[in-house]
């Protein structure tokens, strides 16, 4: 009985997640790592109330996020290392409540609405649809684009996991700031590429392409993924795109890609799946927890959905496409290749 109560408390505690986010937003881990370790120094650097900051650090020290090495002097623990801006896991941007991430996380206070209705909670919480919010607020669009770029940890696996040898032109549909396309073009000098996304996000791709030295092979197209796509490319990538939409919208996006590929092109879906082609859940419990948690995030934000291999195959069939092959890369994403049936 006691054990059940402890587990339930751990599952329902709302203080710790927001306390960690407060520390991440204030940049405490970066400051401590750089030698700003006393309470007074940290309060001055973050423009925080010293007493309130002390209480935050005291609680997080009790939870093992920071440690108090002597009275009101702090050091990082292994957990706090993940809050540093330069940590390869890129967790800090997702915990910064002053960014789009904070607005996203705030949506979950209205999750019950999504469970009752099957509709997104974001407009209930903020009075505007998620994608409309981005399209009408450039700062939020920029912030969201930066969050999407943190997914770069799997990009090299996409590059390695697909055969690009017969591909000349690739279009990244809903490709944000062009982060994935940049990695593909850098690794495959024979390719040229196009990224398609909303104006507030995709225009950031120009500077990225220039910095990577691929601007002569990379094109930016501003537009909706529901509009006709640039036609005639060899591969149309949908990476972490279809899960943002319900079945009806996802089918329309796939239909646009199917219309663009002609008779010889392919659509490449890149997603972590709930179940594989044999109807199996992921073997890794952490991966299963991630994808089921992501599923609720997608539901809450935009009535999206994490899907199984079979569900993606069925969506493809409705757009006149059939599975040509699939590969699971080490980071857990499935590369699902579709072509005209």
TrEMBL record:
InterPro entries assigned: COMT-like, COMT_C, COMT_dimerisation, SAM-dependent_MTases_sf, WH-like_DNA-bd_sf, WH_DNA-bd_sf
Pfam families documented for this protein: Dimerisation, Methyltransf_2
Domain O-methyltransferase C-terminal: 108-321
Keyword terms: Methyltransferase, S-adenosyl-L-methionine, Transferase
Residues spanning the signal sequence: none
GO terms, molecular function: O-methyltransferase activity; protein dimerization activity
Active-site residues from the entry: 243 (proton acceptor)
Chain ranges of the O-methyltransferase dimerisation domain: 15-83
Gene3D superfamilies per record: 1.10.287.1350, Vaccinia Virus protein VP39, Winged helix-like DNA-binding domain superfamily/Winged helix DNA-binding domain
GO biological process, one term: methylation
Protein name, entry field: O-methyltransferase
Organism: Micromonospora saelicesensis
């Amino acid at each position: 009985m006691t054990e059940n109560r402890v587990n339930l408390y751990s599952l329902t505690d709302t203080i710790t997640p927001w306390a960690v986010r407060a520390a991440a937003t204030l940049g405490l881990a970066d400051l401590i790592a750089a030698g700003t370790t006393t309470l007074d120094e940290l309060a001055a650097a973050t423009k925080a109330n010293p007493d309130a900051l002390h209480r935050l650090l005291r609680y997080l020290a009790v939870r093992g996020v920071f440690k108090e090495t002597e009275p009101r002097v702090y050091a990082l623990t292994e957990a706090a290392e993940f809050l540093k801006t330069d940590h390869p896991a890129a967790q800090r941007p997702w915990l910064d409540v002053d960014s789009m991430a904070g607005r996203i996380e705030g949506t979950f206070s209205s999750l019950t609405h999504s469970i009752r209705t099957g509709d997104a909670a974001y407009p209930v919480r903020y009075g505007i649809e998620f994608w409309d919010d981005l399209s009408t607020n450039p700062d939020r669009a920029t912030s969201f684009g930066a969050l999407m770029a943190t997914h770069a940890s799997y990009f090299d696996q996409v590059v390695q996991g697909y055969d690009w040898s017969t591909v000349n032109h690739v279009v990244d549909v809903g490709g944000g700031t062009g982060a994935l396309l940049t990695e593909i073009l850098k690794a495959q000098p024979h390719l040229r590429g196009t990224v398609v996304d909303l104006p507030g996000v995709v225009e950031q791709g120009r500077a990225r392409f220039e910095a990577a030295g691929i601007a002569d092979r990379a094109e930016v197209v501003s537009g909706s993924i529901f509009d006709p796509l640039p036609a005639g490319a060899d591969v149309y990538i949908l990476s972490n795109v279809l899960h943002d939409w319900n079945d009806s919208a996802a089918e329309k996006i796939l239909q646009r890609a199917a219309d663009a590929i002609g008779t010889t092109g392919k659509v490449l879906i890149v997603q972590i799946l709930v179940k594989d082609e044999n109807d199996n859940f992921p073997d890794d419990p952490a991966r299963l927890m991630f994808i089921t948690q992501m599923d609720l995030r997608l539901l809450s934000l935009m009535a999206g959905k994490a899907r199984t291999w079979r569900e993606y195959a069925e969506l493809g069939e409705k757009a006149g496409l059939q599975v040509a092959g699939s590969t699971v890369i080490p980071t857990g994403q499935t590369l699902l290749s579709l072509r005209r049936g």
